Amino acid sequence: MEFHGDESDVPIFWKEDREATIAKLVDEAVEMLKNYREKDYNYDANVILSEAKFVLKVGRNTFSGTVDQVRQNDDNSFTLLDFKSSKFPPNQTFLDVDYQLGLYALACWKGVFKLPDGTMRMLEIPPEKLVIAYYQLRDHIPYKRNGKGFQAGDERGDPRRFTSRSRDQLKVLKRDVAAIASNINRGVFPRNPGTINCPACTYSGICTGDSRIDGLSASQVKSIETLTIQMEEAA
Q1: Measured between alpha carbons, how far apart are the two ends of the chain, in Å?
Q2: Is the pLDDT confidence value at 219 over 90?
Q3: Segment 90-131, tens digit of pLDDT
């Protein structure tokens, strides 16, 4: 049995033949990278940071992460790119409220980045100067057959899904994240049952209950109620 390299207790199950699957993935990766390079908006881009690590203070908590890419545009605005290779991109509503993308935007404004020369510096890009692009790399994989509105060999459309954050949105984000982090630090992990969350959750086998507070102690329930009030006030 094959196991995940970083987690020796996590087995890997191949739905189809292992070698054939790997060969297909390699072919798709080559197509993605080739077509990515051929786009003028990528080839001519002024990339100022790539795979850039940052630290960001939110409330009493310090977050660290890595931004895939930051580009400076001709009009002196900036584009933050988050590259993805999943088969199904999220909808616009998700992109407009996603915490991860919001934290990236906040980091570009208030965080400290590690530069290629090893120094640390704030980018200080205000939200009104920043556009966020969720970059769906698989859209560079051409269709294999003809279909309605497309032909074999066509790419799957513009891989960039754009969103942004205002100063007010980032203010709300900071309050939300601080409140959530506070409960995590106290060991409070409320359920979030739903038809989307539960089927994909790795803890579904041991999680029981139909509400967010089933199985929690009185103090934990109070923490959840406090968190809810804080987030409602922030909104």
Answers
A1: 49
A2: no
A3: 899 999 999 999 999 999 999 999 999 999 999 999 999 999
The answer to whether the CB of 94 falls within 8 A of the CB of 150 is no
Model confidence pTM above 0.85: no
* Amino acid symbol at 5: G
Cα separation, 60 vs 210, whole angstroms: 32
Radius of gyration of the chain (CA): 21
Domains of the chain: which residue ranges? Answer: 18-166, 186-234
How far apart (Å, rounded) are the C-alpha atoms in residues 84 and 137? 6
HEC sequence for the chain: CCECCCCCCCECCCCCCHHHHHHHHHHHHHHHHHHHHCCHHHHCCEEEEEEEEEEEEECCEEEEEEEEEEEECCCCCEEEEEEECCCCCCCHHHHHHCHHHHHHHHHHHHCEEECCCCCEEECCCCHHHEEEEEEEHHHHCCCCCCECCECCCCCCCCCEEEECCCHHHHHHHHHHHHHHHHHHHCCCCCCCCCCCHHHHCCCCCCCCCCCCCCCCCHHHHHHHHHHHHHHHHHC
Q: What is the pLDDT of residues 34-85, one digit of tens each?
A: 999 999 999 999 999 999 999 999 988 999 999 999 999 999 999 999 999 9
